[in-house]
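User: structure tokens for this one?
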Amino acid sequence: MRESGAGRLPVEIWVLVGAAFLIALGFGLVAPALPQYALSFGVGVAAASAIVSAFAFMRLLFAPVSGRLVQRLGERSVYLSGVLIVALSTGACALAQSYWQLIVLRSLGGIGSTMFSVSSLGLVIRMSPPGQRGRVSGLWSSSFLIGSLAGPLIGGALVGFGLRVPFVIYAVALLAATAVVYWSLRDSRLAAPEAPGELRVMTFRDALARPAYLAVLWSNFANGAAVFGVRMALVPLLVVSVLGLSPGLAGVALTVFAAGNAAVLFVSGRLSDRLGRKPFLVVGTVVCAVGTILLGLSENLTWLLVSSFIAGLGSGMYTPAQQATVADVIGPRARGGPVLAGFQMAADLGTVIGPIAVGAIAQRASFGVALAVTGALLVAASLCWVLVPEPMRRRAVVDA
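Assistant:
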């Protein structure tokens, strides 16, 4: 395994970090336009929110298959294929002529997205030194968030040129990420699947016997519902429909959330290696819940942006600790494709249910009630972590 001089992390990790930045940048371009693009086909708020759910629903269905593909074909092949599928389906979204064409194309993108997610997270976890799992998780997550800082802001500005333009640019960014990974990792031994019996395999049933894994499934469900589902689907609609602001400011709100997230992601990841995962999991979910509830009470742009930043801070506190907890459960010298797939499926299930259920609440009651319900999910996740023992095992460094 090649290593870089920056903290003696494998070079492959830095390559994945760079590719993740490009992917996040492109995803951020699309985020402000997607709900509005769906509304342009004459559907309601709930149907527009369902566009986000459709993408996540296919991720949810295909996650177990992605885990098995990684076991058979190796991470790099699955990674490259997944990103290409998302690139092609996203480019085709720019040509959609109806709501149903758009939802089918986004659903196809969900298949590629789960292939990318499972394979890239598997590589990152397996390459991470046991004593630096939080640091690597924070670094990897930070790369997504740094891309997200610029993505929504640029995407909000691009909406003025047409709602289809961000999809074209996102497709190009994905193709660039594919090229970077292919050329950088083509000779890496990590690209090839290990020989049978070379690594211990942890099954999903084995992981379910660990209280920490049960807790991380629930908290990732709440994370998917609140951060990836409701926030991406409702905040752009809140900006336009409730506050009466321009569509471009939806991108600003999403960028401010990402800024709060990026401000603490790397630091919280490093500290979770020293202080344990639990403090960041408990406090982070509460802070994100407070910010989410305050979003629903927004009366002006300033309130909206401050609330978004608070929610982002909370998310940045618990995200690296969640990923590091999964690595702690799997342990060193082990492959846990089904365990990783289950972790991802929990978030995807939240992303599927969240926008539809909370979107319906917003349509029938108010955005304030809808976001309060979302915040309650995060509070429940925090209470769950209070009851679970610290998941990090100090002896893991020695075992490695």
